[in-house]
Amino acid sequence: MGNTYPRFFEGVALNEWIGEINERLGTIIKFRLKRIIKTQKSRYYTIVVAETEPLGKVLLFGEGRDVTIQSAEYYDFYDEMLTHIPMAAHPKPRKILIIGGGDGIVLREVLKYDAVKSVVIVEIDKEVIEVSRKYLKLDNGAFDDPRVSIIIDDAAEYISTTKEMFDVIIGDYSDPYQDLPAGSLIEGEFYRNVHSLLMENGIMAVQAGSPIFQREILKKIYANASKVFDVVKVYWAPVIYYPGAVWTFIVATKGLDPTIPRNPADKTIYYNPSIHRAAFVLPRYIEEIIGGMG
Predict the structure, then answer these.
(1) For residue 238, how far is the Cα from the chain centroid?
(2) What angle do CA 163, 233, 199 make, to 5 degrees?
(3) Domain at 7-72, CATH from 2.40.50.140, 2.30.140.10, 1.25.40.10, 3.40.50.720
(4) pTM to 2 decimals?
(5) What digits encode the pLDDT tens for the residues 159-186?
(6) Residue pLDDT, tens place only, 28-85
(7) Considering 114, 172, 175, 230, which one is annotated as catalytic?
(8) Does the chain have fewer CB atoms within 10 Å around its N or its C terminus?
(9) pLDDT tens digits for range 192-241
């Protein structure tokens, strides 16, 4: 198989297969492996970049006992839907904050909007950015755009102290369990701080997990955001390399209707204005998770 990988990943790459082993959720997702490109241990994660046959390059994290797929080169509907719903709903998104997003893919999508004047990325792990920039290379040069500022910090700490205001805030973090780095990003204080950083027409969008395997995460984010924001909506998309293959997101505003694509981008593979509207039509089981509201 070429390059070696950390002992942590001995159960991840099996013969010529690589993917997710999620003991917390009781799931395994495997894809045919072509080669391991890079492995690196950081303070927070074991980081692996690999090339697969069906998905192209993939980024994986070892977190605690689990190995999770973060992003993929092909069929990446997750990053498009996380990015383009809030960006297209805003009439003129100039100042953007990305929480997490160290692989640079949300950043790449954000920069498709001509109105963007500045983007701040707050990523807790600088090595995720370094590995993604050098080996994953799915940002298409976005990290080098002069409009982009990168801050290595805990996002919860950053938003509690910064004085900057933003048009769009996007939460692209790993699984937000309490014992993992993103655990603080679904608490009530986080949403109060995000609300204070948004301009009047501002929009927040965050990933809200699997509605099949992570129902409690979706419920908690929805409940906490609803205590602060006037408008809170759940939307969803298919993500074939995440557990359950269905992923939810929450978008929240101070009054602006986020279901309207006012400013849609071109050059997408999944997102379009019709998908924008349709994503807010929820399957009954997701409606039941959030209590029939949304």
Answers:
(1) 14
(2) 25
(3) 2.30.140.10
(4) 0.92
(5) 999 999 999 999 998 654 444 444 455 6
(6) 999 999 999 999 999 998 999 999 999 999 999 988 788 999 999 999 999 999 999 9
(7) 172
(8) N
(9) 999 999 999 999 999 999 999 999 999 999 999 999 999 999 999 999 99
Instruction: Name the region of 104 (left: φ>0; alpha: ψ -120 to 50; beta: rest).
Output: left
In the predicted model, is pLDDT for residue 115 greater than 70? Answer: yes
Which of 217, 251, 247 is closest to 69 using CA atoms? 247
As a whole number of angstroms, the distance between CA 94 and CA 210 comes to 30
Domain ranges of the chain: 7-72, 77-289
Please say if 172 is a catalytic residue: yes
280 Cβ neighbours under 8 A, 6+ residues apart = 233, 234, 235, 259, 294
Tokens representing residue 224 in the block: 């906490």
Strand partners, 166: 198
Q: Cα separation of 292 and 107, whole Å?
A: 33
Residue 182 CA to residue 191 CA, distance in Å, equals: 14
Query: Would the pLDDT of 8 be above 50?
Result: no
Q: Could you give the CA distance from residue 113 to residue 54 in angstroms, rounded to a whole number?
A: 29
Decide which of 3.40.50.150, 3.30.70.330, 3.30.565.10, 3.75.10.10 is the CATH code for 77-289: 3.40.50.150
> Alpha helices, DSSP H only, in 137-261?
155-161, 188-197, 215-226
Q: What are phi and psi of 41, to 5 degrees?
A: -100, 125
